[in-house]
Amino acid sequence: MARDPMRTRDPRLENHGERTVTAARTVALTALALGAACASPGSIGRVDQLARATGARTVLLEEHFSLYSPYDLLRTREYVELVETQRAAVFELFGVQSEEPLVLWLRLDERMGVHASITDDRMRIESVSLETHDGILGEAGDGVVVVRVAPLDVIPLPDGRTITGTFGAGMYEDTLRHELAHVAAALLGLRERAWLAEGLAHVVEWIPIEDGHLRLDPPPEALKRAARLPRETRSLEDLLDWKQHFPPSDDDGAKRILACSLTAFLVAREGVPFREALLRVAALDERRILALQGDWSEWLDAIAKASSTVP
Questions:
Q1: Average pLDDT score over residue span 15-36
Q2: What is the pLDDT of residues 193-219, one digit of tens each?
Q3: pLDDT digits (tens, 9 = 90+) for 134-158
Q4: In 10 A of CB 37, how many CB atoms?
Q5: What pLDDT digit, counting tens, does each position of 163-203 carry?
Q6: HEC sequence for 168-227
Q7: CB neighbour list of residue 143: distance below 8 Å, 6 or more residues apart
Q8: Of 98, 151, 252, 287, which has the most beta carbons under 10 Å away?
Q9: Phi/psi at 113 (5° precision)
Q10: Radius of gyration of the chain measured on its C-alpha atoms
Q11: How far apart are CA 221 and CA 227, in angstroms?
Q12: What pLDDT sits at residue 243?
């Protein structure tokens, strides 16, 4: 099912968790690659056990990535083009490449999904949820990306047959771009503090980028949302000290939006292509950033004013 462009509440503007894949998951998925590289009857058996432990029904080994999917082959192929396109776009934006294939795990989250029923040849949507059980939509670390996805909804028909449905691959595009930004930043060698790590990933996720520059006119929704937050929340000192909570808190959601706005402000302020701007921003010390408190706040005020005058 396609994304609903009229949805008024987007959880992707709220509670992403810290993008760090747990050690157990990383070891399991990395072991798959190592086992395949030294293939023998015994190692293939171990690789199979690990693949089944991910809950994957389909495993696709593409040139630049391996895809572990809980769906059948036909539905999984929807994700191949999405991953290829977004991986190429994000890596080009950062000016990086990886010698090792990316490992992407589509991990089922039972709380997500669309539930429907059919009565008298009419389909009724009972519920739609983009929420995950722990508020985390994706994770990334050590060349592994995890994207939470919805299970299939099995809809019984009056004649006894069933049909299945779930969200289309495009529903997860923003989350995938966010996680790929973390991977690309690591490949670029950025030593990211929490505000910059998540702020940068959200910039890539939420803000249009054309010809290596952020497109800020008209202001993207994420920046308008940051500008609408109470002015007393615009403390650079608090933002630079921010650490993600588990599970994500309401304050984390606000901090992520502010981190996105600060990163966009600093990148745009450099006036150079995106990759060079990132390297300059990452090299800024905290004293120089704190000195921009007034400029950043005025920039957000200008966005709020521009947004209020748009009919």
A1: 46
A2: 999 999 999 999 999 999 999 999 999
A3: 999 999 998 999 999 999 998 888 8
A4: 8
A5: 888 999 999 999 999 999 999 999 999 977 999 999 999 99
A6: CHHHHHHHHHHHHHHHHHHHHCCCCCHHHHHHHHHHHHHCCEECCEECCCCCCHHHHHHH
A7: 30, 98, 100, 102, 103, 183
A8: 252
A9: 135, 175
A10: 21
A11: 10
A12: 93
**Residues 268-285: tens digit of each pLDDT:** 999 999 999 999 999 999
Segment among 27-36, 116-125, 247-256, 302-311 with least mean pLDDT: 27-36
- Partnered with residue 106 across adjacent β-strands are 147
End-to-end CA, the chain: 31
CA 106/CA 148 separation, integer angstroms: 6
Specify the DSSP class assigned to residue 273.
-
The amino acid at 223: L
Q: Residue 52 pLDDT > 50, yes or no?
A: yes
Characterise 152 by phi-psi region: left (phi > 0), alpha (psi -120 to 50), beta (else): beta
Residue with more model confidence, 205 or 50: 205
Within 10 A of 145 (CB to CB), how many other CB atoms are there?
A: 26
CA-to-CA distance for 285 and 10, rounded, in angstroms?
33
- Range 243-250, long-range pairs (CB < 8 A, 24+ positions): 243/194, 244/17, 244/18, 244/194, 244/198, 246/17, 246/18, 246/134, 247/15, 247/17, 247/134, 247/135, 247/136, 248/14, 248/15, 248/16, 248/17, 248/135, 248/136
CB neighbours (10 Å) of residue 220? 20
Helix (H, G, I), strand (E, B) or coil at 125: strand
CA distance linking residue 152 with residue 50, whole number of Å: 23
